[in-house]
Amino acid sequence: MEYFEELTTAVSLREVENHFDYSDMSTLYRTLKTFVEYNILHTIDDGTGKVKYAKCIEGCICLTEQSIPSVILPKNYLMYEANMVVKGTCSECRK
């Protein structure tokens, strides 16, 4: 957890693994998964295809209250997943 305290950006599992001299990827993954379950960390899909992790902080802006725009799909098209990446900086971070 100390590692995430120092970060200002989201990181991938590989980046977490590379930070530690002696690490086991499956142990790190299980730990990250537990942190996500307890809302200590959250996951981010930044459009690269790799899940990234970031620490949830007080006032965390995860945009969970935002509605997702509806998408009109072709007839008989079965959507199994959708991602939307919005990049920007909140007013607090711009100060």
Descriptive tags:
95 residues; alpha+beta; Arc Repressor Mutant, subunit A; three-stranded antiparallel beta sheet; 26% helix; globular
Distance between the termini: 27 Å
CATH level-3 fold name: Arc Repressor Mutant, subunit A
Q: Which strand order spans the largest sheet, edge to edge or round the barrel?
A: 1-3-2
The CATH class is identified as Mainly Alpha
Helical residue percent band = 25-40%
Structural class estimated from helices and strands: alpha+beta
Count of helix runs: 3
CATH superfamily: Winged helix-like DNA-binding domain superfamily/Winged helix DNA-binding domain
Q: Which term fits the overall shape? A: globular
User: Low-confidence parts, pLDDT < 50 over ≥5 residues?
Assistant: none
Strand content: 5-15%
| Rg on CA atoms, Å | 16 Å
Count up the domains: 1
The CATH architecture classification is Orthogonal Bundle
Draw up the topology in text:
Elements (H helix, E strand, L loop, with lengths): L1 H5 L4 E2 H7 L5 H13 L3 E5 L5 E5 L40
Helix pairs in contact: 2-3
Question: What this model shows, in words?
Answer:
With 95 residues, the protein is an alpha+beta fold. It has a single domain (1-95), classed as Orthogonal Bundle (Arc Repressor Mutant, subunit A). The protein is built from three helices and three strands. It has a three-stranded antiparallel β-sheet with strand order 1-3-2. α2 (13-19) packs across α3. The mean pLDDT is 83.
